[in-house]
Design goal:
about 160 residues; mainly beta; 5-stranded antiparallel barrel; 7 strands; about 55% strand; globular
Amino acid sequence: MYLDPSGESLIGFALLAICVPLVLMAFYATNPSLHHKPVVLDISRNFNLFEIFYIKGGLSVVINFDEKYIEFYPHLGGGVGSSGTTASIGVISNYEEEGDYKKWFSYYEGGYYIGLDHCYAPKGEYENAVQATSFTFSSGFNFGRGYDYYFYFEELTIDWS
């Protein structure tokens, strides 16, 4: 793995990870058709084990504007693909109540600096499963397919209702 000694790639990634989600949040706030769907913000890191196999860890933050709360979901998992750090912002479907993100999720992701990610809870029918589609920002080439388990700690929920 090559590390840029100048730090330029890290600075570029930091700017993407901070600025682009702010622009997308502004888009979300001004687009009424999205107002009834919770938003997910995520930062994750993949560590390669054997060439294309990796373990993954991260933190997802679910913001439900209708019900006025924020939840935090640390997650761990693994898959096949590239290693690296990603930040993402997306919209969640079929999210019924607090804690609905606490489960196994199957995901697909891909892109080069900017990409897409789609995850869903694989139990039951796909149409009714909790799922999220996100824009992903990475430190370079990013692709993967795997499973993550999302943990939920109710005491960390921020309720502003």
